[in-house]
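## retry 2 of 3
previous attempt timed out at serialization; input unchanged, resubmitting
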Amino acid sequence: MKVRIEIDCTPEEFKELFIPSDKQAEFAAKAYQAMVEAAREAMLQQFSMFGQKPRE
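## retry succeeded, writing output
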C-alpha cells in the first residue's frame, strides 16, 4: 500500500508542523494528559458497576 500526501505550505509553516519546539512539547504534554484522564474516567465509569451491591 502506498500513500501519497502533498502538503502546500511555506518553510515557516513546515517548521511549525514538523520541527519540535517548546510550543509543540507543551501541547503534546497537555494532550497526553487529557487523553490519560479521559481514559481513566472512562475505565472508572465502565468498571464501577462491578463494585456495586446487587439490588434486592
